[in-house]
Amino acid sequence: MAKSILILNGPNLNLLGSRQPEVYGTTTLDDIHQSCKKRAAEYGMEVDFRQSNTEGELVDWLHEAKDSHQGVIINAGAYTHTSIALMDAIASIELPVIEVHLSNIHAREEFRQNSYIARVALGQICGFGAIGYEMAIEALASHLQ
Amino acid sequence: MAKSILILNGPNLNLLGSRQPEVYGTTTLDDIHQSCKKRAAEYGMEVDFRQSNTEGELVDWLHEAKDSHQGVIINAGAYTHTSIALMDAIASIELPVIEVHLSNIHAREEFRQNSYIARVALGQICGFGAIGYEMAIEALASHLQ
Amino acid sequence: MAKSILILNGPNLNLLGSRQPEVYGTTTLDDIHQSCKKRAAEYGMEVDFRQSNTEGELVDWLHEAKDSHQGVIINAGAYTHTSIALMDAIASIELPVIEVHLSNIHAREEFRQNSYIARVALGQICGFGAIGYEMAIEALASHLQ
Amino acid sequence: MAKSILILNGPNLNLLGSRQPEVYGTTTLDDIHQSCKKRAAEYGMEVDFRQSNTEGELVDWLHEAKDSHQGVIINAGAYTHTSIALMDAIASIELPVIEVHLSNIHAREEFRQNSYIARVALGQICGFGAIGYEMAIEALASHLQ
Amino acid sequence: MAKSILILNGPNLNLLGSRQPEVYGTTTLDDIHQSCKKRAAEYGMEVDFRQSNTEGELVDWLHEAKDSHQGVIINAGAYTHTSIALMDAIASIELPVIEVHLSNIHAREEFRQNSYIARVALGQICGFGAIGYEMAIEALASHLQ
Amino acid sequence: MAKSILILNGPNLNLLGSRQPEVYGTTTLDDIHQSCKKRAAEYGMEVDFRQSNTEGELVDWLHEAKDSHQGVIINAGAYTHTSIALMDAIASIELPVIEVHLSNIHAREEFRQNSYIARVALGQICGFGAIGYEMAIEALASHLQ
Amino acid sequence: MAKSILILNGPNLNLLGSRQPEVYGTTTLDDIHQSCKKRAAEYGMEVDFRQSNTEGELVDWLHEAKDSHQGVIINAGAYTHTSIALMDAIASIELPVIEVHLSNIHAREEFRQNSYIARVALGQICGFGAIGYEMAIEALASHLQ
Amino acid sequence: MAKSILILNGPNLNLLGSRQPEVYGTTTLDDIHQSCKKRAAEYGMEVDFRQSNTEGELVDWLHEAKDSHQGVIINAGAYTHTSIALMDAIASIELPVIEVHLSNIHAREEFRQNSYIARVALGQICGFGAIGYEMAIEALASHLQ
Amino acid sequence: MAKSILILNGPNLNLLGSRQPEVYGTTTLDDIHQSCKKRAAEYGMEVDFRQSNTEGELVDWLHEAKDSHQGVIINAGAYTHTSIALMDAIASIELPVIEVHLSNIHAREEFRQNSYIARVALGQICGFGAIGYEMAIEALASHLQ
Amino acid sequence: MAKSILILNGPNLNLLGSRQPEVYGTTTLDDIHQSCKKRAAEYGMEVDFRQSNTEGELVDWLHEAKDSHQGVIINAGAYTHTSIALMDAIASIELPVIEVHLSNIHAREEFRQNSYIARVALGQICGFGAIGYEMAIEALASHLQ
Amino acid sequence: MAKSILILNGPNLNLLGSRQPEVYGTTTLDDIHQSCKKRAAEYGMEVDFRQSNTEGELVDWLHEAKDSHQGVIINAGAYTHTSIALMDAIASIELPVIEVHLSNIHAREEFRQNSYIARVALGQICGFGAIGYEMAIEALASHLQ
Amino acid sequence: MAKSILILNGPNLNLLGSRQPEVYGTTTLDDIHQSCKKRAAEYGMEVDFRQSNTEGELVDWLHEAKDSHQGVIINAGAYTHTSIALMDAIASIELPVIEVHLSNIHAREEFRQNSYIARVALGQICGFGAIGYEMAIEALASHLQ
Fold first, then answer.
1. pLDDT tens readout for residues J74-104
2. CB K69 within 8 A of CB K48
3. Angle at L40 (CA atoms; ends L36, L45), nearest 5 degrees
4. Would you say residue B103 has pLDDT above 90?
């Protein structure tokens, strides 16, 4: 049976592509979904791609992943820096989780330097835009072998 | 067509007037809604007045504002001090946003001194109770001319 | 009429017992619900036992408690350390609130040392696992006399 | 007899309009004086409008206000962030004092985040340029009723 | 043979009941001793109840406990926040130790937020006055089974 | 020839006695002047007693003291906590300087804990109200022998 | 009956005069005792003068003072900066307590800047050597009238 | 002509594979060199792969890259956290630079959380071991198109 | 017409030469004035040399410079470290401003490490005594060409 | 006459060898006493070896050392990190004092990084277990020559 | 014999003029060398002008200076902020050392505010570009007379 | 075969004895080499004694030690406080490493309090001058048995 990975997107990522294209480019979240699907297929994996602006819903989805997916890729957006709840959820589900950010968070405001996700994730990829998701799929595929 | 402004109220503001009247007075959130409606009308503007205790729902509503409103007034309550997600949402929608607080947050506990909203808002009004909302409407009307 | 107490459980507590039993033991949240019901009955009290991963829903439930319960026991999980909204909700409802944690949060990571709940709660019990909830019921019963 | 309010302006505000108009606009301090006079008149109030670059002179003027004015609006400029003497003066005179800033100080350098004035003022208005003074007059009029 | 527990009380607790009754109530330390004795008896346990204002004497008593008691309840008072020596003593004796405070230390001055005891104790109970000792006995009894 | 001491009073001390008598008592600065004169006379000393709200004027007066006085008593009020200029002036004049405060500054807000004056003063007396000035005179007299 | 005051001296003060005379002078603690006795007599007061190197013993003596003395003067030496226990003891006994230091602690190492004693004392006198004790007696006499 | 990328490895990376294999695995730096060569070839790129324990030599090599390479991948090891010189060198050469770490530095000691490299790099990849270098090559290839 | 530069001297600099010659040497402020006049003449420039102990007067003088001078050299003394008002004045006048200090402020107390002036000045010269003023004149002459 | 050195041991060191042997080994404090005696004899010195859990008693013993010993070796245990009283005692007695720790305190919890003892001791030896005492004897013997 | 001064340049300064000319101008390090030679000649001094990217080599060169030069001018670039080794080297050689920076480091990132060099240098010149080196030569010549 | 130990000396230690003899004494690094050789011989060990001012060279030498020596003694000088690279090198080579400092670094500037070496070393010896090296040899010999 094909492996399935959950790709979670946090607050404001639904605006991608339609807002401030001069900053974030014209790639939409759906474009990313499609390229992820394609890249995952190369590794024989399926993707379950979701977005929510609510911290609690992201926690709920992480809980669901335990029994239905083999790994998680998460771009938690602003919750990356403030959510101990997401960190605890990741620690609880005992799946490999990879953290992705479109921008290089380490070159931005100081309050974006802390990542609660990173403390429990396998690793972090940031600064490469949409292609970062594909790189995460490769890393996850490699890890799941 | 009349301009429309979104007025958002964050956590615990639904309790206004019915709880601790000795501290917060007897003005209810609905009273504020009515006085806002009246003041906005003076500037030929309509108000869309909402309250939620959920951070993600406030983010959702800010996203909606982009295509249906010309400006936003937000009293984010406790999320003012903790929500980078709200800050990012405000930055994303590219509308003028004014921050209001009933109490003077700068004269309270230290953890209420930081406002993520203020970093991306047009300006801040605090300490004047319900009339602060009306002042914000004036400031927004002035800005939108 | 029997007194009723609200017992609130925050993010990730729904996983209790079914995840990482080597760390958190095999007691489930439902087991705790049952033992609370039994202990409360000894004091002639009923319990309303809930869990949510969403900060806003916990705030909503605290608001409801004002008119339907005589006291609250809360294990706010990760929101303990980050939620000023929950703190404000507790301060608003003017009910006795007792804070419980399964683990000894003071012996864990530094970011778990701060409790916004504790600033407005009657007291705190932590480190005793499921029995902490029963102890909280005793303390609340004693307080309500 | 008409109520009288003192409007104090701190260091560098005398330069307003004639310096860096691309940043601060072309409105001069005298323009603000005139619009304040007009707005105050609507509430049956007179304004006493002053500016000084010297901390001690601002303290002196606050002392005078006690017996000759019913309220104070203060834009203390840079002294906002460094002057405990002004804070103590405000606390001593027991008049309602409203803090105004032309720019949004919360979105500027970190050393401008602290306001000693705000700890003892009724409230704060910032980020709205010259119209902020008028809003302060409304707030003060409302408070004095 | 009956299990025996050591209950240690730190500096200033000898004044309990006879000083500032409006703050700390009229319960004396001896009252607490009696109620502890009674509650412990319910679990078939004896209590050895002591108080000292000297850090070194509390360390000495903890050392003694190793060979004569099965568990310790400690209200170290002010030494809670400053004594690494007590922390090391607790770590050395390898007995279950429960920390109790009459007041909710987390809602007091910032220098009372740190507890060296908590880093090595089984758990902490605070804010419930004298009944907190009884709760500690229950927790200890439960732990020792 | 009689020794002469300069007694300097900083910002807001001119209000003493006529403002907030419930906090600061009804003793005026002139009352203090009189009692200082009397106490100084016991030691065969004259006093030169001044007050200013302007930091620079206090610096000027300290400079003058070098050639006309044998010692200085200073209650720099709010400038105590912010004025490196006063500290440097005191260091420059090479006279014995004693720091006085009416209230116990160490039991007030954290920003009142720092005293630039204290780093270069002979000693500090605080918390004793007007009598603190008299004690300073005794200390200065003793030092000048 | 004559009023009696307790004068407490903390760690290392027993060495006064016999050690490092080039730093601390040749005045011994007994010399201070004598001059205190003399000065107190002027106000019709008796002194009970003690020294201990043990924190707990100083706490014990403070407790005793409640019923046998009308006020306390304390030079807690190094415990000034580290002892919350002494602070709590002072708060508990509800007597006027005056803090004295031989040297100007505010001009020494940073860890000597904090005084737990000062938070609950009437006031503080430091930097005047032995005469500071006499000044404290005057302040206490004045306060007790 | 084939594009050429410089891959720099900082202090202690020469030990890879031969030291602490239970921690870092048995992959040697040469193994990484080979897999990089292979992956780069897929994108028609050549790699220049170097290692040095000396900060200044790494700076020298970055300078050389300007005229001979189209991009840089750098695992600066411990210098990541301490070298402003490397950061300045990267900023000076105006080439795209990607930061790689074998381990997840965000889950390690606090002094490893700061990366001077990240402030000027395109992005960062960490936590994926040797495959992280290959991902960096993909990101660089994608960026250079 | 000859270029004119304003040379401002802040608090306590008037004492130069006549006080603590063993520390600051015997050069007086007037000596510096003369050597500045001479050096400026070499570049065909005139100097306007002033000193004040009052922050507000220094701000006033900076404002005047805009229309009458081509550049400013400022030794703000202690106000360097505390005056945001001076920093704002410098930013407002849009003239080249050079900061000078007689002593090496970076090798002194920590509170002298911060310079608000330096954030908006062209550059800083410190540690060279009176000759630093002459160097500043050279730098200003070079900048004004 | 043989030189005599005082070897002081602080809190919890009396438990050495009989507690947690897997951590601290089976060497008892008496074993260390014996090996110290032997090593000291090689240098013609006698040892006075003591242990106390009370800070004040350690201070007392240091005072005694002045007239009866030529040097001190101290393992102050937990008091190392909290006792300014011990630091002051060491500074007062003007004897060479060497600090010893069984474990490497610099590789333990952050609150063990500070040593008040080290600020006034000749030097520090830590991390070598019981042999560290012998090394201290050698260092002291060398210093006393 | 002519006096000789060593002028040291730290990391990345070799790139001057050929990189980012829009930021750093087109002046090369060799241009600076030539203008230094010329200016030094005016004072009858020779210059030994060097650059290295390696901290240790800069330390080596400072050591050499002791016996062959009369003074040092150092622009340590990024090592200014991180190298205690350079600071120790400067302190060891007991020559007058002047610190130069092309840019105004006090107006840049916070991590560039600290200068280990400044703690032991005669003085600092920054923000004047290449002419700063010439000013340093004047200051050094003046110092060496 | 004789055991061999590597003794590494960091920046500026080559100057020992020939520079500032009033501070560091007249013992040269070669003198220390000789006394180390002699002491090591007593334990049947040989010493390989080196010094470098370059961090990277010290890292290189630590790597070499793995296969040729049984233990390391390191006085890393200024790099002690700044080099994570040296710390990582020590951790990598899995040899016992002892840290030595001539002076008592804990009694010096605050930036010398942190030792990255100490986190991974067996133990630390500081403050005893040259004899500290010999003590380290004894400790290493004892550890290697």
1. 999 999 999 999 999 999 999 999 999 999 9
2. yes
3. 135
4. yes
Judge residue L1's burial from the number of C-beta atoms within 10 Å of its C-beta, 0-12 exposed, 13-18 middle, 19 or more buried: exposed
L14 CB near a chain K CB, below 8 Å?
yes
Q: Look at residues L32, L3, L37 and name the one whose alpha carbon lies nearest to residue L145.
A: L3
Tell me, yes or no, if F91 comes closer than 8 A to chain G by beta carbon: no
HSE-up (13 A, CA, CB side) for residue L32: 34
Give the predicted TM-score (pTM) of the model: 0.96
Residues 6+ apart with CB under 8 A from L110: none
- Tell me which residue of L50, A121, I127 sits closest to H127, measured CA to CA: A121
Alpha-carbon dihedral angle through residues H18, H19, H20, H23, given to the nearest 10 degrees: -70
The backbone region for C20, taken as left when phi is positive above 0, alpha when psi lies in -120 to 50, beta otherwise, is left
Nearest to E15 among G55, G63, G82 (CB): G63
Can you tell me which residue has the tokens 């001194």?
B113
- Residue F126 with chain G: CB contacts under 8 Å: 123-124
**pLDDT greater than 90 at residue F23:** no
Edge-first strand listing for the sheet containing J71-75: J45-51, J3-9, J71-75, J97-101, J123-126, L123-126, L97-101, L71-75, L3-9, L45-51
Residues 107-126 in F contacting I (C-alpha not used; CB under 8 Å) = none
Query: Which string of b and e fits H11-24 if b means at least 16 CB within 10 Å?
Result: bbbbbbbebeeeeb
Whether residue G92 lies within 8 A of chain E, CB to CB, comes out as yes
Asked if B100 has any chain A CB less than 8 Å from its own CB, the reply is no
Residue from D75, D105, D56 nearest D7 by CA: D75
Residue among J8, J9, J12 with most chain E CBs within 10 A, to mutate: J12
Neighboring chains of J (3 or more beta-carbon pairs < 8 A):
E, G, L
Cβ contact (<8 Å) for E63 and J15?
A: yes
- Dihedral of CA J41/J46/J52/J54: which sign? negative
**How many pairs of residues across A and H have Cβ atoms under 8 Å apart?**
75
Contact D143, D122 (CB under 8 A): yes
* H101 noted as active-site residue: yes
Q: Is position G133 annotated as part of the catalytic site?
A: no
pLDDT tens figures, F63-112: 999 999 999 999 999 999 999 999 999 999 999 999 999 999 999 999 99
Total CB pairs under 8 A between chain E and J:
55
Nearest to C20 among A83, A85, A92 (CB): A92
Q: What is the residue-wise DSSP string for H7-26?
A: EEE-TTGGGTTTS-HHHH-S
Inter-chain CB proximity L82 and K87 less than 8 Å: no
ipTM of the complex: 0.95
Q: Any CB–CB contact under 8 A between I127 and chain K? A: yes
Q: Six-digit token pair at D67?
A: 């017996």
Judge contact between F93 and I19, C-beta under 8 A.
Answer: yes
CA-wise closest residue to F8 among F44, F53, F38, F41: F53
Q: Note whether F133 and F140 are within 8 A (CB).
A: no
User: Which residue of chain G comes nearest to J62, CA vs CA?
Assistant: G12
Residue F65 CA to residue H108 CA, distance in Å, equals 59
- Whole-angstrom Cα distance, residue H27 to residue H15? 10
CB under 8 Å to J120, separation ≥6 — which residues?
A: J87, J90, J91, J97, L107
Asked if pLDDT for residue B145 goes beyond 90, the answer is no
Token pair 């004068």 is at which residue? G7
C107 and E119 Cβ atoms separated by less than 8 Å: yes
* 8 A C-beta contact, residue I25 and residue I129: yes
Residues of L annotated as catalytic are: 24, 101
- How many C-beta atoms lie closer than 10 Å to residue D9's C-beta? 24
| Cβ of residue G12 closer than 8 Å to a chain J Cβ | yes
Give the sign of the dihedral formed by CA C110, CA C115, CA C119, CA C124.
negative
